[in-house]
User: What shape does this take?
Amino acid sequence: MGNRDLGKEIIQGLEEIKAWKRGDAKLKAFTVEMPRAADVPAIRKTLGLSQPEFARFMGVSVATLRNWEQERREPQGPARSLLLVAKKQPEAVINAFKVAEPAPKMKGGKKVARAA
Assistant: This one.
């Protein structure tokens, strides 16, 4: 990572926290607008994925995706983070989807664990 002095950066960070606690410094803050259910159809269409493809990529069932798209349910936790990436960096998601290798399936549709 180059010539970074991590110890110095940690100490600097601790000094900033002390200054903030004393009231001598203000911390920088920002808000990230996380995607909501209403955003899901547009994000999926931007990626050019069908509902089954997008559901598989998101790691949810098609029924869950449809509930989001029809605003009956809100995405939660990591799904919202992945939706944010898909919204802000669609090319990264498209590339990841293209290179993702589907896991082999056993009879009954269950996935088989791969050996490393």
